[in-house]
Design a protein that fits this description.
Shape: globular
Structural class: mainly beta
Distance between the termini: 7 Å
Number of helices: 0
Helix content: under 10%
Strand order of the largest sheet: 3-2-1-8-7-6-5-4
Radius of gyration: 11 Å
């Protein structure tokens, strides 16, 4: 998988049910609002202010603090 810290990386975005729902540029999800999250390094935050830490981005998957898969990305 590409290094998502690089700019202009657009990965395919999927729901936990394997539905294609948009694209991921390494920080934000498109179309805007498809997921209410923002990725900062390996940490996932809500986009609603004040931003809340809700999980980690690891091996192409967004994992909540409770261990649930929030989303995953693929080339």
């Amino acid at each position: 998988m590409k290094d998502v810290s690089q700019k202009n990386v657009h990965l395919q975005l999927f729901s936990p049910n394997n539905e294609h729902i948009g694209h991921f540029d390494g920080e934000f999800f498109y179309p805007a609002g498809v997921l209410p999250y923002r990725v900062d390094g390996n940490e996932i935050y809500t986009t609603k202010m004040p931003a809340e830490y809700i999980g980690d981005f690891e091996e192409g998957r967004g994992v909540s603090l409770t261990g649930d898969i929030l989303f995953f990305v693929s080339e």
